[in-house]
Fold this sequence. Notes:
- There is one protein chain.
- The chain has helices at about 15-25, 40-50, 75-80, 95-100, 115-125, 135-150, 165-175, 180-185, 190-205, 210-220, and strands at about 5-10, 35-40, 55-60, 85-90, 105-110.
- By secondary structure, it is α/β, with parallel strands linked by helices.
- The chain has two domains: about 5-130, Response regulator (Rossmann fold); about 135-220, Response regulator (Rossmann fold).
- It has a five-stranded parallel beta sheet with strand order 2-1-3-4-5, sandwiched between helices.
- Strand 4 (about 85-90), helix 4 (about 95-100) and strand 5 (about 105-110) form a beta-alpha-beta unit.
- Helix 8 (about 180-185) packs across helix 9 (about 190-205).
- The longest helix has 16 residues, at about 135-150.
- The protein is globular.
Amino acid sequence: MRDAGTIRVLLVDDHKSLLWGLTKLIDGERPQMEVVGAASTRAEALALAVEKQPDIVLLDIDLGDEGDTLDFLPDLLRETNARVLMLTGVRDRAVHDRAVELGARGVLLKDESAEVIVKAVEKVHGGEYWLDRAATGRVLDRKANEAQNKKSAQPPGIDELTPAELHVIEEVVRQASKTSKEIAESMNMSVKTLNNHLTKIYSKLGVKNRFDLFIYALKHGLGKLS
């Protein structure tokens, strides 16, 4: 029976020893999190994602003979509501950035400690991105340039924003690389209050998360990078 409080994790890697180790690590955190499936091919990953509907997918960027999984990532995301955290042994910044641009919530190096892996799963499950500040800056800068190069009419929803919500959007854009806790502290409010504002903003503007809000805000002139 599914425990609503347990983070359900799907593992995708072509190295059985790594799958074994990650399974032991994740299942060792029960009831906080558990492994609901393990796959070593794209077909297995897609089938398990559809069947198990995990909360988090730890997806190896390189599946050996099947090549990298970046072109497979959009297909996986269409079939599940899971948040995908990429696994890799490669420290190529361009590859990491591309993964996030395609929808991954972050990139996790395979040689990270058990503590870091567990923390990454928790953070991504909580709606955050697992990226260092430099990577966040690179991706956001690229998205900002793309958004600012596109002209569009003001869509419905913006007129419904309150002055307080507009201020929150401005701060989210200005402090894009910071955590929700850091932004809340800078605005002298609790994380809960900030999240309440963001929930209302997401609903009014039809966006899903802070990353989408950042792009939306820059595209429609609702905030500026610091």
